[in-house]
Give the backbone structure.
Amino acid sequence: MRPHSPSSTTRFSLVLAQFCVLILLFNLTGCAKIKSMLDFSREEVVDVHLPAKALITKGMDDYAVGKYFTALEYFQEILDTYPFTPEATLAELKAADCNYFLERYLEALTLYQGFEDRHPTNEAMPYVIYQKAMCNYKQIDRVDRDISGAEQAIQLFGQLIRAYPEAPYTAEAKARIKAAREFLANHEYFVVQFYLRTDKLKEAETRLKNLLAMYPDSSITVRAKDLLALIQTGKAPKSNLSSWFPKMSLPDWSIFSSAEKERPAAEGAQK
């Protein structure tokens, strides 16, 4: 006689019972752990309930690998909970750096300025001034927009060069001053185009003279001289202005990319 085999209903009941047991075990023992493993949308939880030394270590570890959001939380916790500890000075500086690398340039600029105000003799001051300049430099936009970022960057880079001529950032500061001045020259030339299109030749002539006086070494100088000569001889172009004013763009920031990656992150801040 063949052994009796369980019916489909019986097999289903057994499977259902086993499933219920697994669910119970899941809820009692492994729920939180398994859920956390399966929930890929969760952000990393930052344990801020640590002493200052542990917080600065974790913050610097995250900062070193580009985890600026979590690093910033650690640094901010030090500033909130341990503002008078040796770690707080470094946390101030690195909080500014985190905002900078997160492209929050206005926030970073405020933090760098605050650091400078509170620690004017800190050995990281050349770096702080450089970063303040970079916060402005990074906000340079199209030539037809606000030029204050370029102007402030030039002023701050110049301050760095005068105050700390031997600083490791001086050579790069000089190159960025040149690029920012090139941007300003192109801005002046763009304004000339507006005056020509609105038939304001006297204003265009004045603007070109200012451009040549202020930025004689600009790449736009030769074109500006030729255009000025035409205006002064009564032959100002009235059509096909695009040939005189090609599409302008920012300087090639890529020439600085390798230097930025290699630049030290002001680890000399006092601890």
Remarks:
- The CA atoms of residues 157 and 174 lie 7 Å apart.
- The mean pLDDT is 80.
